[in-house]
Structure formats: structure tokens, C-alpha cells
Amino acid sequence: MECIVVSHTSAVRGARAERCSYAAVTWHPLDKREQRRVLASCAPNKIAIDFEELVRKGFWQGTEGEELHILMSDPSHVSRKSGLRCHVISKPLPAGAIMRVDAGLYCCSPAFATLLYSEGRSLPEVYALVMELLGIYSLPAEATLPIAWGGVWPDFTDRHNVEQEHCRCEPAVTMRELRAVAAWATGRRYATFRRAVEYALSGSASPMETVMAGMFSIPMRWGGFNLRALPQGGIFLNHRIDFSPRAVRMASGIPYAVCDLYIPAAGSDLEYNGGYHEQESVRVRDGQRNNGLKGMGVKVLVINRDQMIDIVALEAIAQSIYDDANQRFRYQVAGYRARQLALLNGLRAGIGLPPV
């Protein structure tokens, strides 16, 4: 295969395929000098591109209307062939923006691919992708094109569904990497990416945790409940609390709890209980765990599947958390309910679910 640098949506798809196949991104970052050389030599010839190899690597699906996104630095190398979408960036890229996948095959790093993918998209959609890459889960590669095209995945998903298929894996990016890319990305075209990085949290364990975190942490002007502004750091995802000896006894021997969304100022743990938690054995363990948290002085609030599409219920829970943190809950924007619905539906769209 001749030298190509996969970018944008194609790179996002490849990152998901890599994470689901190997539980981590195993590509190798290039230094700035090598990046310049590779981008300058990228001159795609559709006939010479091994699309079967791209399918095996997860960058290409072969769907009707699909385009292979390719990045280069020389405008004279742009190809107008159908099925190829060439993008030109001539200024030097941030360190590690390009990664080596295989001989002659390069790809934008997950952080830089997300930056390029973000252009023209809404804050909730970009936030959902940033949270996924910072988290310990990945959507399947097959979900990428339907989501990018504004659709639903899988096709039969209905509006009452609040959960999405995903695989467990290591984080694909760090906050440091994202902030470095955000610092490079000046100008209005990348403002949404910079804002998504500003609001993002590390450690999300599932698509629904990402939706829950977005609704409760994003500022009110975007439709969230702004728990991130509370004292003591706002909120923390998957925060571990080690139990005292008495709390261990209260929890029937469970030594610690990992809180879905921990709010230290309120002494509260916000838990999402999906279908998995409806199993009898899981309910028993959840009850023991919650007793242990009570022994540590932590209040547990549980959100079920129905409440994750009920904005009024989410609002009441947020108000309770503000009360426990001795903070005033007050809207400072007009049309807050419409903003909340737009945020919820945008976050759902970002993980392939239909609007409520």
C-alpha cells in the first residue's frame, strides 16, 4: 500500500476497531519531523490503496456513500476520485498527531482525529466522543458511520432505550493529550472541540455514564446542571472509596466501593442502575455496597433507565445534590428546559440512540 494518512471519521472508526480488538490503541506516534515527511509524501492513488487491508484494520466499512478520509500537507496531491475525501493541513501538527499503523499506513491519533471530526458538529456529540476516548469503553466500529451521519445504531433501537452496546478497553487518550491538541487548535472552527475538552472527565465506564455525566456536569447554558462548579472539585467519575472496618461489616465484607459519579461537596454518590443491576444477585450486592457507603457517610442516589429520559426527575435529583452541598440551585438562562432536552438528545445522538 502506498503512503496514506487516515483521518476524520475514518480514523475514529479505526480507533474503535483497534480498542475493541486489542483493548487498547497499539499504534506508534511519530515525532514532528516524521510527521512532516509522511504528510508531504501522502499522495493517494485510489487504485493502489488496499481497501481490503483497511477493512481488516477497521478504517473502512465499504458502505454505500462512505468516503475514506485522508490527510496531507501538499494541495497538489489532492485526489478527486469518488470514495476519497482529501484534507489539506499545511501548518505543523502537534506532537503525536500522526501514528504509524503499518508499513505505508498512518492514522491521525485519537485526539487529533476527534478534533478533525468535531468540525460542524454539536457540543454534546463531540463531548460524547471525547468522554468515550477518555473512558474505559468503546463503541463498536460499526456504530461510527450511522452516528456520524446523524442516524441510530443499531437500526431497531427505540426511544425508550438508554443503553448501548460497547466493549471494555483502556483509555485511548489522556487529558494532557487532548489539552495539547486544543491549544494547537485555534480559531472558531475548533471552538466546539475546545469546549468539549474543557468539560470532559476521565474514567467513564459506559455510554450511559457519559450521558449521565454530561447532563449533571455540563454548565446550565448548554442544558446541564453544572455540578462541575460545586466546591471540592465538582464531580469525579468512578471514584474509589475504601471502607472503614465498621463500613466493611455493614457491607457484609465488601472492602470498598467505586462510585459512578461522586460529588464530594454533597457527600453523595450518583449511581446509574441499568438492566444489569436488575438481576437478583446484583441487587443484593448493590444493597450491601450501599450500606457500606452509608457507613462512610455517603448518600447514594440511584437513577434507573426510565429516569434517564425524564428531565424533570434529573432536575429534582440535581436540586437535592445542590441542597446537600449547601449551594443554591438557580437557573441563570432562559429556555432552560429546551436546552436540557437538546443536551440530552445530543448526548444520545453521540452514542447512537434516538431522541426522547
Overview of the structural elements:
This protein is an alpha/beta fold and 356 residues long. Among the domains are: 1-108, no CATH class; 204-332, no CATH class. It contains 13 helices and twelve strands. The strands form four sheets. A four-stranded mixed β-sheet has the order 1-6-5-2. Strands 9-10-11-12 form a four-stranded mixed β-sheet, with helices on both faces. The chain has a two-stranded parallel sheet with strand order 3-4. Helix 4 (110-118) packs antiparallel against helix 5 and helix 5 crosses helix 8 (191-199). The longest helix is centred in the C-terminal third of the chain and has 16 residues, at 280-295. The N and C termini lie far apart (45 Å). The model has no long low-confidence stretch (mean pLDDT 94). This is DUF559 domain-containing protein.
Which helices and strands, and how do they pair?
Blueprint: E1 4-6, H1 8-22, E2 28-29, H2 32-41, H3 51-57, E3 68-72, E4 84-88, E5 98-102, E6 105-108, H4 110-118, H5 123-134, E7 137-138, H6 144-148, E8 167-168, H7 175-184, H8 191-199, H9 207-217, E9 236-242, H10 245-250, E10 256-263, E11 268-273, H11 280-295, E12 299-304, H12 311-324, H13 336-350
Parallel strand pairs: 1-6, 3-4, 11-12
Antiparallel strand pairs: 2-5, 5-6, 7-8, 9-10, 10-11
Helix pairs in contact: 1-4, 4-5, 5-8, 5-9, 5-13, 7-8, 9-13
